[in-house]
Every structure is written in structure tokens, then in C-alpha cells.
């Protein structure tokens, strides 16, 4: 493998081109294992990341491989403008069945970030139908919604990854991050209500990651905060958008994180785990009422159309992935993983560098008192047989749902051991 070419010519996510970091060549991926080249030697390690949370059934999944091969025999792609096809219809049917009651209109997008773009445009158009110009969105600090411009605008403007673009982004309205579960909520609720009411007439929608904020800091917060935000939106004529790209499909323990909050959004964004990590695909699911309002706007239609919208190959694999999810008790599986993460990460409480240990569903997080030494932690975890990708001051895992108790134990021991070795 020509890693020299990679270093000289290929830009990796959130990395420098002129001073690139270390990357590890992958030769194979199977089940929960990645085979990497580490310092010139082949090493098989447990994947603790599900390839950024999407490979929920691991790698080389026979059912998904078969779905891809079968679809290739028919067609790999055809435009969705003026045409349709069975894989899109079948996947749409499954998503409507899985979505919260009342959400039955599906718009396919080609990435999570694009689905958030679409959701925000839907909200704006829905208000435009009534002659209202509501150009602002209400959200909370600590969030992350994607790397394209509209999602960057509702991602934390100071603590997030996109603060350098502040001058280019529309300024939206940010409440403080809700307290963690178990902390008092009253003061936050009062301040958030006051802030919302100050801007109510200009707000198109509330947009949040319910219950668990992902790349903004892996913060777990009280379902009551989600209910408050949804209530404020509905009291003042704004819509509710749930970004469940990271939290959907049982990652936090229930089918949707919003289920645990007892809130149904007006617009739901899904992605990541939708195709089991095989192909990029996302969807925006909304109600007949919102769809009618969008169509009643001056444009008369939803003004968005990605080239690879409803790609047949991705849709076919996504349906097979949802079949696989339905074939076993996924909630029980996630509960088992959660229990293993909780018991395995307990030892981290004894480390001087740890300020918090938290687990929600199949998500385990170690929060440090300083930024993570990413290269050192990565190496230390690899030495213990695990691939992790820390960020900021967090070492975390979102393992595949097929992870065995032994896999989870290996992951937690590697996380705790790596932090102890590098940060103490």
C-alpha cells in the first residue's frame, strides 16, 4: 500500500495536509475486527468506533453483501427526478413503519449533513407558505449537526469544530447546554424560556440532538429538557427538528432517542447506521401537514434534489440492514453492551485525569481534564488490541451491536489502560 502517496496527496478528516498525522492502513475488515498495519506489522484489533457509529452490524455482513450483489445485477444507480424504483419504495415503507406515529413523508438525502440542510429548508418553506419570514433556528450549545453551511450554523459557535467560520454563517439563537441527567434543571429551564420568548417571532424551528449530543461533546442530558424545548416551539408556532443521525436505530437504547423523551418531532433526520455502514444515505421524515405547508410555499415544491438521491444500491442495502435489525432483540443487545460498558469503565473513576465517566445505551465515554493526546492514546489502545478515535478531551466508544461481552471487555480495558498510561 502506497502510504507515501497518501501522506503527500490525500486529505483526511479534520487533518492538516502539510503536517499530516499518522494513519493506519486497513487491509481487511470482518465482524468486529479491523486488520491494520501498525509499525510495519499486521495486527487485528477490535473496532470500538463502528466506523464513526454507522457499522452497527460490523463488517463483511453476509446479508448486506448479498443485498448489494443482487441490486448490482439490476442497477446501481438511476436518477430520482421523474423516476422511481423498488428499493426506494421498499425502504420508504420501512422508514414510515419505524418512524414515530404521524411521520410518513420521506425525503432521501445523500449524507447526514445534507439531511439537516433539507430539514432546515423544509422548516423555512413551511413558514413561507403562511407569509411568515422566520429565518432563525433555536438550539443548544454543545451540539453538532454537520459540516455544510446550514448545519454549521446550528453547531456550537464557540466550543464546536466550526468556530473559525463564524463570519460566514447565519447567526442563530443558542441556549446554554442543558444540565446532565441528575443535575437541577430549573435555572436552565427559566433562562431558556426567557431566551426563546425574546426571539419567538423569528424562529422557524428548534433543532437538537435529543438526549445525547454527539461530536459536540458526547453530553447526555435530561429528557425533560427535550420536552421543554419542544413545548416552547409548539407554544410559539415553531417546528421541532430532531437530528437523530447519531442517536437513531437504538444507539441510545430505544429505537429513537426521542422515544425516551416522549416527544415526536415535526421533522426527523436519520443517517449513519441506516445502511449498516455500507454506503452513504440519509433521510428526512416529516408529516403530511408539514409536507402540505412546504408545497404551499411560493416555490410549490421542496426545492432540493441531490444527484444520488435514493440511490438504488444504498436503498437496497438499507432495507437489508433494517431486516437484520428486526431479526433479533436489539434493545436487549444494546442493554447487554451498556451493562458491559458500565462495569468495564468503572475503573476509570480511580484515574486522576478523569472528570466524568458516562454510559448511555451502546455509548461509553471517558471525559478527561485536558485535551487528549490523540496519537499517544491511539497507540496505547492499539497495543491493547483496540481501535479508538478520541477527540477534544474525550475517549469514547460506540461499538457495533454484534460486539460480544468479550469484545466489550477488551474495549473498556483498552480505554481505561490507555488513559492511565498516557494521562494518569
Strand content: 15-25%
| Number of beta-strand segments | 14
Second CATH tier, the architecture of the largest domain: 3-Layer(aba) Sandwich
Helix coverage percent of residues?
25-40%
SSE sequence, one letter per element: HEEEHHHEHEHEHEHEHEEHHHEEHEEH
Structure explained in plain terms:
Keywords: Aminotransferase, Biotin biosynthesis, Cytoplasm, Pyridoxal phosphate, S-adenosyl-L-methionine, Transferase. One of its GO terms (molecular function) is adenosylmethionine-8-amino-7-oxononanoate transaminase activity. Its EC number is 2.6.1.62. The protein is of the alpha/beta class. It folds into 2 domains: 3-60 and 328-423, Aspartate Aminotransferase, domain 1 (Alpha-Beta Complex), CATH 3.90.1150; 62-326, Aspartate Aminotransferase, domain 2, CATH 3.40.640.10. It has 14 helices and 14 strands. The chain has helices at 3-9, 50-53, 62-74, 86-98, 112-128, 149-153, 186-199, 223-235, 257-261, 288-295, 312-326, 330-345, 374-383, 405-423; strands at residues 26-30, 33-38, 41-47, 103-109, 136-140, 173-175, 203-208, 239-243, 267-270, 282-287, 354-360, 363-368, 386-387, 394-397. A 7-stranded mixed beta sheet has the order 4-10-9-8-7-5-6, sandwiched between helices. Strands 1-2-3-13 form a 4-stranded mixed beta sheet. A 3-stranded antiparallel beta sheet has the order 11-12-14, covered by helices on one side. The longest helix is centred in the C-terminal third of the chain and has 19 residues, at 405-423.
